[in-house]
Fold these 2 entries.
Entry 1:
Amino acid sequence: MPSYTFTVNGESVTVDAPADLAMLWVLRDKLGVKGPKYGCGINVCKACTSHLDGEAFNPCVTPVSDCAGREVTTIEGLADGDQLHPVQEAWLDRDVPQCGYCQPGQIMAAVALLKRTSTPTDAEIDAIENVCRCGTYFRIREAIKQAAAAMR
Amino acid sequence: MTYEDESSRPILDRRRFLTVLVAAPVLTVAVRWGLDVAEAETTATPSLPQLPEVYDLGDLYTLATTPTADMLVLEVTDDGRVRLYLPRMEVGQGITTAIAMLVAEEMDIPLSKVEIPLSDARPELIFNQLTGGSTTIRSTYAPVRRAAAGARARLVSAAAVKYHLDADQLTTKDGSVIAPDGTAYSYGSLSAAAADPHLETQVSDTPKSPSEFGLVGTATNRIDARKMVTGQFTYTLDLDVPNAKPTMVRRPPTIQGSPQAIGNEAEVRAMPGVIDIAMVPTGVAVTAETFGQALDAKNALKVTWNPGSIDGLSNDDIKQKLRAAVVPFTVPPLGTLTVDAEFDYACVSHAPLETNSAIADVRADRAEIWSGLKIPIIALQKIALDLGLPQDKVTVHVVQSGGSFGRRLFHDGALEAARISKAMGRPVKLMWSRIDDMRHGRIRGATHHAVRATLGLGQVLSYEHRVASIKTDWRHGFGEIITAMGAEGPGNTGYTQTIFNLTVECPYNFGVVTEVINEPDINMNTAAWRSVYSATTRGAEEAVVDEIAAKLGKDPYQFRMSSLKNDAQRAVLRKVAEEGSWGRTMPAGHAQGIAYHQEYKSKTACLVEMDATDPENPRVYKATIAVDVGLPINPRGIQAQMLGGLTDAISTVLRAGLHIDHGLPLEGSYSQFHYARQKNSPMDVKVFVMPANRDEPGGSGELGVPAAAGAVICAYARATKTKPRSFPINFDVDFEPFPR
């Protein structure tokens, strides 16, 4: 079985895995990194949204072989110790989560958006396709705008 | 919450409960000191008025839980934390936060020191461990406060004894008993003394009256949010149960089919990572080292199948069966005096984001289950029966879950995991694929509605509403409660009519009102879906209200105001009309819609603004909601529920439904079942929680859906100048279905 080395939340890891095994299962089942959630497996619900070299990606459809030598950041790697990322702070302040299952992906999608723009428009927020079955979208929208303001 | 934490919880069966009370090193209380509360007198069977306004399903449930209501377990740890083991299930409603607030309020302790773990299944609670019908706050409001006030009284009494103080001179603040000289004795330091069974309570253990509330009634953030936003929160599939390996099931090509034979077992066993394969009644299970490998292997299986329950049936057939099943009207059509309307609603998936999942570790002489279960006692009993184990050898842990919307009333995932674990002789971690969850999971059954309103002298003289629905499955425990409470004889049909009568109510003065449901025997995997019959029935009714108003030449808001029965109703409707600027001039293709709903002893109104310039792609861009729950515990949690109800309404009215095609839904993921995304939800939402006006809370979890559904339908009708009759309104098969 091939072996792949990459970093997860700043730590270098090496895993033995079939080349086509989706990164979601490498993270969850082999490395015990369980912040990214399964919701569909086909890059539709985006509950697993994480970052690859700083950009949003969906580990449920990304083979482990694509991640070799690269930097993976999951929700667990977003905060700096106890110091939460401003997006996480905004999520808490706006009391966004309900069941919470989609929120790691929502937050990682929002962080990726705010890397591209410091003044996200409603249209740019609308382009985030992550499903929230509890329907917290309005609070997500407000939290993104609040985080953007805090980061400017 | 880790697996180890879970297993270290005290076992709270009835026999040992008293032992725990006597022998515990720290205060662990139930309200009725020393009483064997399980044998408290049962409550007399109520007679049931038919109007939910007077007596509703939540009243019935609260009454059913009365004999065991005070068997809550609350403990004070020696480091001063208070833990109340809640026999309900958190799935995102915010009940643990609201109940933590009640505990903090009564005990004068900071909210951050209160924990609300979910109880394992406790069969001795009988009916008092069910999460549904928006009853949690209603049924626990009084007993939780009694438990907390009782604990506070014991802590105060313990301080009085220990430090030779006059109990009447002691106060409580910030988790301490305060002496007249200002000395603070922390609850943690008093817990052991307070646990002494010989301690006599010297101060009142009566809960505060609402007028004394400080924390309760103020907007409070969720107690579990930090773990969620940092990825630390553990759902069922995140638990580390030793050796429980990833497991998935290959399922039949039609609903309720079953496996006959596996054609290529040896071949699949040789696939990478595969550990075991087992046939169970619902399909063929594969356990592997990773879920990715389990998924590949289950997809590679070649299985022959027995037929399911509705193999030949498709959406059009279902629609015809429902239309044929509608009970006839009693009033004949009277020409221009009659408003007739018929509505069809498609099936809707519950589709919680966390798919059906469970961990099971079944041994020869015992079993342990972890899953998101809203009726865990029934789950435990059914699983024990299926495994052939005594009930006291089965432990069922209730795990907080990623949504439910009614889905987790059923324990089919837990039962399936138990069967697989038994068959394989190893612990398993079962996850349903999204496709299976949508196709073989639970649904809100399709409904047909026939409505006739008869007008005269500028008002409504009679209103008849006939509903036909795919049979809703109540055989998860709620039905048994209804039987036990003497409300109706056993049998699913009886449950249905009773629940319909106890929940669905026309809030308007519409003369003679008759509302009847009939459920033809179409055997699908159904379950109550948030607000059950109300979202469809009342949504359609609100559409008719607009049509009646138009016929009478009246404004939709003014007509509702003049038709509602009392000022409390009108106050809620007026609130949204004023705050949402009802009647303002809208651009072409845009419109407002307004609707009212009451249920669960609560009231709500919703006003939406919609852009339907493109009728196939309408957007609700603004919503104003008012909600009166009588006594709000956590206004912020109530606002969240109303927003969720709004999103459900936007989804199911406009785009989200299931096409049943030859015995199986075509939809298999969120790219096909069009639950709303950010781009479909409003950019401006205001939810007004009306001030307290009663001394007990109504329910709010499901309350938001029906009014919002009505408002969205009415807005679409006004914006497009059409009469929507079939929901979801835009319902093309705009995708390539996954293979069966």
Entry 2:
Amino acid sequence: MTIATFPPEPPPPASWTRYLGFSTDAKVIGIQYIVTAFFFFLIGGLLAMVIRGELITPAADLVDRSVYNGIYTMHGTIMLFLFIFPVLNGLNNLLTPTMIGAPDMAFPRLNTAAFWLVPVFGLLLIGSFFVPGGPATAGWWSYPPVSIQNPLGHLINGESMWILAVALSGVSSIMGAVNFVTTILRMRAPGMTLFRMPVFCWTALAAQSLQLIGLPALTGGAVMLLMDLSFGTSFYRPEGGGDPVLYQHFFWFYSHPAVYVIILPVFGIFSELFPVYSRKPLFGYVYVSVASFIIVGLGLVVWVHHMFPSGVAQWMRDLFMATTMLIAVPTGVKVFAWLGTLWGGKLRLTTPMLFCIGGLVNFVFAGITGVMLATVPIDIHVSNTYFVVGHFHYVIYGAAVMGIFAAIYHWFPKFTGRMPYEGLGKLHCLLTFVGANLNFLPMHPLGLMGMPRRVSSYDPEFAFWNVIASLGAFLLGVSVIPFLLNMISSWIRGPRATYNPWNAIGLEWLLPSPPPEDNFGEEVPTVISRPYGYGTGEPLVENQSEIEKRLQLQEVLA
Amino acid sequence: MSSSLPAATNESASTHAHVNHNLTGFIIFLCSESVIFLAFFSGYAILKTSALDWLPPGVEGLEWRTPLVNTAVLISSSGTIMLAEHFKVRERLWLFRGFWLLTMLMGGYFLVGQAVEWHGLAFGFDSGTFGGTFYLLTGFHGLHVATGILLMTIMLIKSFIPGNYVGGEQGVQATSLFWHFVDVIWIILFLLIYVWQ
């Protein structure tokens, strides 16, 4: 009896050098993604520090104006294509297979290739700083006609490298998306129907479907942009009969849904973490899950709200204003479901929980300014001002990055086998929340006062709010220090993590920390109930107590 | 313990069902790939309907008779590849290879026809949005035809490997699907470029 259930000898701890090579293990690739993403996060953050350093005084005195154009362009591009998307793909890699009980991704080698494209296009993008003429200066959206100027006449210039990097990033993301969608659709544990799937997997499925639908449009648009820039076509060149607004359609057809690609997994993270730290089942699980796909559907038909001042027809403005406002409905469903989960729960204010609450507060604020911006008259009034910059930084940094930090602290013990330090984590959370709000809140009054974005000098009347924003930005810069310290030191010598340190429910918490290479291997448990059975005493899988006993025994023996 | 034994065998059966997802992944990829064509088609339609002078000076329009022959060949090749698949399912490998090769030749004929047409045109890809979109659409589609022929070549070579189809092989199905996809795209493209003038 006991011999049959005795845990197999745990394999010797694998060498850390596997993180440097072409591994096909999703858990290794996940960590590779996350570490690479944070490397680029530091570069993008450094550029942000330069931007805010420049803007702390009204005069353009820190960097040259043309250099400034390159810096904000690269800041946006790096943060989106080299930080946010890779870090989310990293979380997807770690969480999707373990949460659904799959041994690995459906296409492990495709996964490896998708990851290794990231450093390739990363180097391409960073390399554009060193070519004659410097990096791309047309802003992260790269609108023609600014983006199809090539005054030096070189075939290899900052803009063409930008386009190539973005196209490669698209290839990598499509490879990833094909993989994630196939894995979620085909490799779930026995008994795990779609409506027994954790919400993170729902949101990952939704977000990756958006990638599959939206990204090819950007790639197509970018190919045409490159041809205009380098090979003399005139798709977007008005003097050749082309239409610059066409590019805006291509760009936003993808890049607006891209915001949902970013925020949906963060909704997933909120939905996973709030139940754990309030000890209550997720309120309205079915609605929260399905709302993800309503967001996908609506998210595909809102892109023109970025183009209200671009000379689109009035009926399009009206239509897209309505669809944009409608998105607040499924999003509101989720927000109220999280509040319903928190309500009356036994809250545990751990680092991940604090990050989630902070992220939720910021997200609600961003949602309110989002509905404001959807309104055509307000949008036209504040278009291209700091109001827009403030809004999307609240979404991306205030909500998404805080959610990502929450996920990192929450699942760190699972995938490294070590506990992160709570004190440093809470300090990080405090600095992030205060820094983000100090940095991005002043941008709203600035925008309403009329300060345009993408300028290195401004009227002294804007100075007060800019100084506060810059101080907030420097605080955000400082906030990275406790984070990095925490990650490095706790990974090396943090206390050992048990298989389920947060007392959470989910297939990933029925694996040892860190999980073996093939996760459950041949012994995938059969799922018998919905996720988040907190406080109900209902087991998630067949023979759950037996599995847990085995894991405890294994930990005692180790 | 005895109760968990049958469960264990069930689980290993389900992991075996996991082994090959290539076709699923490929279909998902094709759906995504169709969006890039959709983007090009809608770009073409927008540029064309809003153009003041669509045709560059000295160009009367596109000759459609030869392309129609090419189109007929390409569309019929969807039929031959279906026949090939039909014989593959019935394990009549030589008939499969024959029709497979015929499909490849028809694809090749289409590509050569395309090249001849390109060669005889009086405008280049820098001749306004008309030239740009024409070469972009036909070129991007041609690239897909070439990819299809390459995939078929690989499948043809693999069909000579002994025991290639023992573990279940989805490459032929996927290639065939891709070929139908390329054909459907061409029909839309032909209507947009040659018929709508």
